[in-house]
């Protein structure tokens, strides 16, 4: 039976949820990058670095995404 989960960095993801947070493209354990717990495909991770020359904006964005994800819906 095929596993429906992908585990990376001690986190388990549904295969359908394991995608780039920037472009939504599918990623695999061999072609992803993570920063502050946010997943990116290697292409977009590199592209976002080249646009700004650092990862500072990604760290800020990751903090906002984590905060939004932890707010329960009412």
From TrEMBL:
<keyword id="KW-0862">Zinc</keyword>
<keyword id="KW-0479">Metal-binding</keyword>
<feature type="domain" description="LIM zinc-binding">
    <location>
        <begin position="1"/>
        <end position="51"/>
    </location>
</feature>
<dbReference type="GO" id="GO:0046872">
    <property type="term" value="F:metal ion binding"/>
</dbReference>
<dbReference type="InterPro" id="IPR001781">
    <property type="entry name" value="Znf_LIM"/>
</dbReference>
<protein>
    <submittedName>
        <fullName>GATA type zinc finger transcription factor family protein</fullName>
    </submittedName>
</protein>
<keyword id="KW-0009">Actin-binding</keyword>
<dbReference type="GO" id="GO:0051017">
    <property type="term" value="P:actin filament bundle assembly"/>
</dbReference>
<dbReference type="GO" id="GO:0005856">
    <property type="term" value="C:cytoskeleton"/>
</dbReference>
<keyword id="KW-0440">LIM domain</keyword>
<keyword id="KW-0206">Cytoskeleton</keyword>
<dbReference type="GO" id="GO:0051015">
    <property type="term" value="F:actin filament binding"/>
</dbReference>
<keyword id="KW-0963">Cytoplasm</keyword>
<comment type="subunit">
    <text>Interacts with F-actin.</text>
</comment>
<dbReference type="Pfam" id="PF00412">
    <property type="entry name" value="LIM"/>
</dbReference>
């Amino acid at each position: 039976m095929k596993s429906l989960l992908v585990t990376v960095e001690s986190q388990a993801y549904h295969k359908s949820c394991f995608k780039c947070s920037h472009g939504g493209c599918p990623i695999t354990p061999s072609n992803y990058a993570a920063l502050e717990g946010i997943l990116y495909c290697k292409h977009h991770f590199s592209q976002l670095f080249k646009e700004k020359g650092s990862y500072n904006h990604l760290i800020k964005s990751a903090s906002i995404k984590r905060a939004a994800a932890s707010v329960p819906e009412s």
